[in-house]
Design goal:
63% helix, 11% strand
Length: 150
């Protein structure tokens, strides 16, 4: 098992044992699992995202911590949270990753994901000047998500 899987599984177990909220200290967890602290950061930023239904708070310093809370949101609420977090610009790689995360977490079905991929792909947006593509992609992506939530 890869170390990132071990870290994620450990955090998921903590969340299950504590009814959805886990507070960890990055350095202590890294020492316990035998990895570097940056590996903990990587796992948290890639696997415990708002799109996947988690809220991550951190406090730096000597008594610092990372608090991960599993959100109990409906799929419609998750989609609106994602729409509100996108901003005015979205690159193709981020759109693909966000969509894959939503499929994995059950927010979107595969057919909807494929339609979104097609609509925001570089091939589709190739008719636009390069400097406008990410802005157009963000607008299309948000609107498609809004339509899928209804």
């Amino acid at each position: 098992m890869r170390i990132s899987d071990s870290v994620a599984n450990y955090i998921l177990q903590l969340l299950q044992e504590t009814n959805g909220t886990a507070e960890i200290q990055r350095n202590e967890l890294a020492n316990f699992l035998g990895c570097v602290p940056s590996q903990i950061n990587y796992v948290i930023t890639s696997r415990f995202t708002p799109e996947q239904g988690y809220l991550v708070e951190s406090r730096r310093g000597g008594g610092g911590y990372i608090r991960i809370t599993r959100l109990n949101l409906s799929n419609a609420d998750r989609i609106m949270h994602i729409v509100n977090s996108i901003g005015d610009s979205l690159d193709a790689g981020t759109a693909r990753a966000m969509t894959q995360n939503m499929v994995q977490s059950g927010v979107l079905d595969q057919a909807s994901a494929e339609l979104i991929y097609a609509a925001v792909s570089e091939k589709t947006l190739a008719v636009l000047p390069r400097e406008l593509r990410d802005k157009a992609r963000a607008a299309i992506y948000k609107n498609m998500l809004i339509v899928t939530r209804t």
